[in-house]
Write a structure and sequence with these properties.
The chain contains six helices and eight strands. The chain is α+β, with helices and mostly antiparallel strands and 196 residues long. It is globular, with a radius of gyration of 16 Å.
Length: 196
């Protein structure tokens, strides 16, 4: 809980220092919701959220189980009071939660296809790292499909931000432009350098 309060304090300080557009506020609000959810749940869970989703990318989004799409008929905005509980209801679902630029949660349980993550390191890496795909993408420890899909989505779908919670460690990551911009992982990028 102390760590969560520290992270939220950093977020609020950045918001005060920079002129944040509405989408910046929504990105931060979504991060705050995810951090709260991660700190409140006793059982580990995994989560994958894409903020800034546009209909033009729907060809990459596949619903493998329509019962997991709880937002299709009754959409929720991340600023709504019940948004934390509704996101919490999806933590056992496979796939991503898609959120548009206005903060409307569009779909849940979405599998993102056609990303080609093995191409990403050669495009975004500033150094030629060797090792497995996790290392080449900048992760300090090996990660699995959820994190690889998230970092690749943040590059492929321009202007989006992807968020993950690790089912194994509980760490929260934020990805933008194919890079890790925030992480609660020990020794990770636990900062929000001009992220808005």
């Amino acid at each position: 809980m102390r760590r969560l309060l520290s992270v939220l304090k950093k977020i609020k300080n950045i918001l005060k220092q920079e002129s944040i557009q509405k989408s910046g506020e929504e990105k931060m609000r979504l991060l705050e919701l995810i951090l709260k959810l991660a700190s409140r749940r006793k059982k580990m869970f995994g989560l994958f959220v894409i903020f800034g989703w546009e209909d033009r990318w729907n060809e990459y989004a596949v619903l493998s189980d329509s019962s997991q799409d709880i937002f299709f008929k009754g959409r929720t905005n991340i600023f709504d009071e019940e948004s934390l509980q509704k996101i919490a209801a999806t933590v056992d679902f496979d796939g991503a939660i898609l959120v548009d630029r206005k903060g409307n949660i569009l779909h849940s349980g979405v599998i993102i296809e056609g990303l080609r993550p093995t191409k990403l390191p050669s495009v975004v890496a500033s150094t030629k790292k060797e090792g497995d795909l996790s290392t080449r993408l900048g992760f300090r420890v090996k990660v699995h499909a959820r994190h690889i899909a998230a970092i690749t989505s943040s590059y492929k779908f321009r202007g989006t931000v992807a968020y993950t919670v690790s089912e194994e460690t509980g760490d929260v990551h934020v990805f933008e432009n194919g890079k890790i911009v925030f992480s609660t992982a020990k020794g990770g990028a636990d900062e929000l350098n001009k992220w808005s």
